[in-house]
Design brief:
Largest sheet of chain B: 2 strands, antiparallel
Low-confidence stretches of chain B: 1-26, 417-431
Largest sheet of chain A: 6 strands, mixed
CATH class of one domain in chain A: Alpha Beta
Structural class of chain A: alpha/beta
Helix content of chain A: 25-40%
Number of strands of chain B: 4
Structural class of chain B: mainly alpha
Mean pLDDT of chain A: 85
Largest interface: A-B, 77 and 49 residues
Oligomer: heterodimer
Number of helices of chain B: 18
Low-confidence stretches of chain A: 527-563
Strand content of chain B: under 5%
Strand order of the largest sheet of chain B: 1-4
CATH superfamily of one domain in chain A: P-loop containing nucleotide triphosphate hydrolases
Mean pLDDT of chain B: 84
Strand order of the largest sheet of chain A: 6-9-10-3-11-12
Number of strands of chain A: 24
Order of helices and strands of chain B: HHHHHHHHHEEEHHHHEHHHHH
Radius of gyration of chain A: 27 Å
């Protein structure tokens, strides 16, 4: 079905969230809606889904104006929505979840055998309250097959990986005959592999005539999947572009100024070993061995990127390094064993820590920005003298940091939870980088941030490196790993499967992350191809990749290389 | 989530809250946030008003004259409404006179009577409020560190036992005796609270279960001690009473004859001020609040969460112990099994009504103290027709309405603030 938005305007008080938005999505088209956080993408989609009523403008479906006052109207009009945060009941099966709200009921009547044997009439009535699980399962299976969704109808949702849960949401929409699908930041929670699977599904849906609106702020994904791109900024449509448009142009349209997509950085000049991790093993949440005897070291003035698909032990490794999770093995910070130290001691010893989940671990949402800025130094002078805190000093420091790190907030006494994601992360970054650090440990430092904020956080991290801080970046975003790392360590199933230089080809890194090849095999294969291709530097292949057992020793000569 | 454009170059507040994480948050933390920040002062006042309205209906039902008048509502509507007004206004007026100010004492004072008599109701209210404020603080301070202290009752017993024993069993010089008893009560309660905190910190035992179970243990321990000679029972008695405290162990009163302010009340207010100072001005208080708002963020920031739990439960227990001292040393002069009362559970309601803030707890304690005093007074004034228990219904309703701010908004047609309205819509669908 064709979807047309005409002059949609929505105001919240004095803020114009959507300003006369025009957009036409043809049947069988994937339309990307690209914009920064807060540009008005989600408001627009809430208008389309009936969660918000527009102040002006109209929605046309197949050239007929429709009134959408509620999600029920939207579903009736053929619009289906997959929210960023899934609305599934974890303890229900897939089949139960997808039929929730439109449960098929059993029919009570003359049984089939009686119809056949006794030639009774085929009479039946729907029985309210009796769930027909068979029908539910069959429809899930049918949809799964038709669109390659691969979902087991009897699996419990809580047991499914996030990517599959998302497919359940898509099936839910399709089951209600949605021909216009809205996907709100669908890749935010997915691994690279899962994202590929999702894109395949989206293409299949498009080819069967569905219209898809794909909301995102990730340039690469938009370029990869969209047929057309609508860029919105501050509530207005600023451009429509084909997917062949360059990164730089899209980013500039999105942010309203030219953006450096890749931080400019000089080659690293590594110094002394700052962090030395030897044979560290960590138990996971359920007693499994999440990190298995890992060894690596990081030098002053270099960035080690730890790449890997989420859930391969990175979280546990970071928590262990911070003393938040018990670990075996030895961790030396500037030559001093900190393996048994408390989190506080490690912070004091000079580790800056940007946790993976800023909302849960990095910030206290109800606290003011000022309090959050001293969250791990609240008991040090000048913020406290003995037991008594000094609110004035805290406020003054906050005013200075907010200015220095460009945190957009109305006041330092605003609660941190009301800030946008980018500004929340700036608060965490400001707090952790304003201390004299020896080591910076940053886990997923730009997850969920828009281009402008990513640029800022990346340049701050590089600044730290240039000041001689050893930096460890854990990220599942390949872009980030490539943008920042001076060396890349790849984690797979709790082990470091290779430590590579930053110019390793992207596919090779992808293969390592997927555990599809070992660093050994990859190095061997590359040696072969390079040999066959008549390359003049066959030894480069050996140098390119080092295997896990060698990694610890091999880093030494490597570290001297880049300079 | 609402998506509001942000003007990029100038420092405009970005009021787009981060969408809530899909990871389910601790329900406890959410609940505590709802308690401490959920409802405004307006909601609280309206909740009290609404409770009084519902209470009025109960008063009407408990008065046979009025119910009979309602039987002939259509024949004599004026009579029925008049009787209703009379019954309700009389009951509430009596409650006010008993708990706050009796106008007749004022006119008596003008004509040469006792000026002190004017303040008699207020001093009774303060006396009633004292233990409520202290147990309220015991619950509130734990709330702020993210713990549900249901065990104020058990901690109260801990304080009561020590204070009583020190009060009659030890002889000390006058002023020192009072202070030692008070400290003993604090320690007695603190030990019980500390034990709860320790169990949580070491083994992860949930404090709600531990405190409820300890309440049973302490209740029966009190019963045992008070029914065995050689323990705490008064040797010449077969009832569950302890000996009277030594005279110099009782809390003095300030202000001479009858209308006095007990030192206990001053201690309660001082304790509230101390808790307020601790929470807002000290590193320990900052730790408590951080642990309460987000234990994971606290841990990441290097705060020793377990230590905070133990410490806050210790302080909470101590405050509950002081509540026992205020009762035994302040008003009863003797521990009896009836002293136990309902201070523990009342502390929870006081803390809820006071939104877990020390000054809120003082105000809530005073309100409940006034209701207790007024309830007894109105029962006497109506010769038992309006039972004193009605104030417990009122208390229950007030807390219930405060806990359900949405209900108050509907009843009084209050509009939710602009921002939250949108969020509520979006949250409804976005989780």
């Amino acid at each position: 079905m064709k979807l047309e938005l005409r002059g949609i305007t929505k105001r919240f008080g004095s803020l114009v969230a959507n300003d006369h938005i025009h957009m036409v999505v043809q049947a069988g088209e994937i339309r990307a809606l690209l914009g920064e956080n807060g540009a008005g993408k989600t408001t627009l989609m809430n208008v389309l889904y009936g969660l918000v009523q527009p102040d002006e403008g109209e929605i046309l479906i197949d050239d007929r104006p429709v009134t959408i006052r509620s999600p029920r109207d939207a579903i009736g009009a053929g619009v289906g929505m997959v929210h960023q945060h899934f609305m599934l009941v974890p303890v229900f099966t897939v089949a139960e979840n997808v039929t929730l709200g439109a449960e098929p009921v059993s029919r009570i009547g003359v049984p089939e055998w009686a119809v056949r044997r006794l030639h009774l009439p085929r009479l039946s009535v729907p029985s309210p309250g009796l769930l027909d699980r068979r029908v539910a399962r069959a429809s899930v299976r049918d949809l799964s097959q038709r669109y390659g969704l691969r979902v087991d109808p009897d699996a419990y949702v809580e047991d499914l990986p996030v990517g599959v849960q998302q497919r359940v949401e898509i099936i839910k929409a399709l089951l209600r005959d949605a021909s216009i699908l809205v996907l709100d930041e669908p890749t935010a929670v997915l691994t690279p592999g899962e994202t590929e699977d999702l894109f395949a599904i989206m293409r299949q849906l498009r080819d069967s005539g569905h219209s898809i609106v794909f909301i995102s702020h990730k340039l690469r994904e938009v370029q990869a999947i969209a047929d057309n791109i609508t860029v919105i900024r501050r509530g207005k449509v600023v451009a429509e572009r084909p997917p062949t448009t360059s990164d730089a142009e899209l980013a500039a349209l999105m942010v309203g100024r030219t953006v450096q997509l890749r931080v400019s950085k000089q080659a690293a000049s590594p110094g002394e070993v700052v962090l030395d991790v030897r044979d560290v093993s960590v138990q996971g949440e359920h007693g499994e061995l999440a990190v298995r005897s890992i060894s690596f070291d990081v030098r002053a003035g270099e960035i080690l990127g730890i790449a890997g698909v989420q859930g391969n032990g990175q979280t546990e490794l970071c928590e262990a390094l911070m003393g938040l999770r018990p670990a075996t093995g030895s961790v030396l910070l500037a030559g001093q064993e900190i393996g048994g130290a408390t989190t506080k001691d490690r912070l004091l010893a000079g580790i800056g820590y940007i946790p993976e989940d800023r909302q849960e671990d990095g910030l206290v949402a109800p606290f003011t920005v000022a309090d959050n800025l001293v969250l791990d130094v609240y008991d040090r002078p000048p913020y406290a003298a003995g037991l008594v805190m000094n609110p004035d000093a805290i406020r003054q420091a906050a005013v200075r940091l907010v200015d220095e790190y460009d945190v957009r907030t109305s006041s330092v006494l605003t609660s941190a939870g009301t800030l946008s994601g980018g500004n929340q992360q700036k608060v965490v970054v400001a707090r952790e980088l304003s201390r004299p650090n020896k080591l910076l440990l940053a886990s997923q430092p730009t997850r969920g941030l828009d281009v402008g904020s990513i640029e800022f956080v990346h340049s701050e991290i590089v600044k730290q490196r240039d000041q001689g801080v050893a930096v460890v970046i854990v990220s599942s975003e390949l872009d980030e790993i490539f943008a920042l790392s001076d060396r890349i360590a790849v984690m797979y199933e709790g082990k470091i499967v290779g430590i590579c230089p930053p110019d390793i080809p992207e596919q090779d890194l992808g293969l390592l992350m997927a555990g599809a090849v070992t660093a050994d095999a990859l190095a061997g294969a590359q040696g072969d191809t390079q040999g066959n291709g008549g390359q003049t530097h066959p030894p480069a292949a050996d140098q390119l990749l080092q295997t896990a057992p060698l990694a610890a020793d091999a880093t030494e000569p490597q570290a001297e290389e880049p300079a | 989530m609402s998506d509001i454009p942000v003007v990029a170059p100038d420092p405009v507040p970005t009021e787009t809250p981060e969408p809530a994480r899909s990871r389910p948050r601790l329900t406890g933390a959410v609940l505590i946030q709802a308690i401490t920040e959920g409802s405004s002062a307006v909601i609280t006042i309206l909740a009290i008003f609404l409770a009084l309205v519902v209470g009025a209906v109960l008063i009407v039902f408990s008065d046979p004259v009025v119910t009979r008048a309602w039987g002939s509502l259509f024949a004599h509507p004026g009579y029925a409404l008049g009787q209703t007004w009379h019954a309700v206004s009389f009951a509430y007026a009596q409650m006010f006179e008993g708990a706050i100010l009796n106008p007749s004492t004022v006119s008596a004072a003008v004509h040469g009577g006792s000026v002190g008599a004017i303040f008699y109701p207020l001093s009774a209210t303060c006396a009633q409020a004292t233990p409520l404020i202290l147990t309220g603080l015991a619950v509130a301070i734990a709330f702020r560190a993210g713990l549900f202290n249901i065990g104020a009752a058990g901690q109260w017993v801990g304080g009561a036992i020590v204070a009583t024993w020190l009060g009659f069993g030890v002889s000390l010089p006058p002023v020192i005796h009072v202070i030692v008893c008070l400290l003993g009560a604090f320690v007695g309660g603190a030990v019980i609270g500390w034990f709860v905190g320790l169990l949580k910190a070491r083994t992860g035992a949930h404090e709600v279960i531990v405190t409820i179970m300890l309440n049973f243990v302490m209740y029966d321990l009190l019963s045992y001690l008070l029914s065995h000679h050689g323990m705490l029972q008064e040797p010449k008695q077969t009832n569950q009473v302890a000996p009277f405290l030594a005279n110099d162990a009782n809390l003095p009163h300030v202000g001479g004859p009858p209308p006095q302010v007990g030192v206990g009340f001053l201690i309660a207010v001082a304790a509230a001020l101390a808790v307020a100072w601790l929470l807002s001005r000290t590193t320990t208080g900052f730790e408590f609040r951080t642990v309460g708002a987000s234990p994971t963020a606290a841990r990441s920031a290097g705060i020793n969460v377990e230590r905070s739990w133990v410490l806050v439960m210790l302080l909470a227990g101590g405050l509950a112990g002081l509540s026992a001292a205020a009762v035994i040393q302040g008003t009863n002069t003797q521990l009896t099994f009836n002293s136990y009362g309902t201070y523990g559970p009342d502390g929870i309601t006081v803390a809820l009504l006071g939104r877990a803030r020390p000054m809120g707890v003082v105000l809530a304690g005073l309100l409940f103290g006034a209701l207790h005093v007024g309830g007894t007074y109105v029962e006497a004034a109506t010769l038992g027709q309006v039972p004193a228990n009605i104030v417990q219904v009122l208390e229950g309703l007030i807390v219930l309405f405060v806990a359900a701010p949405a209900l108050i908004r509907v009843v009084f047609r209050l509009r939710a603030t602009a921002g939250t309205g949108m969020e509520a819509v979006a949250k409804g669908w976005n989780g």
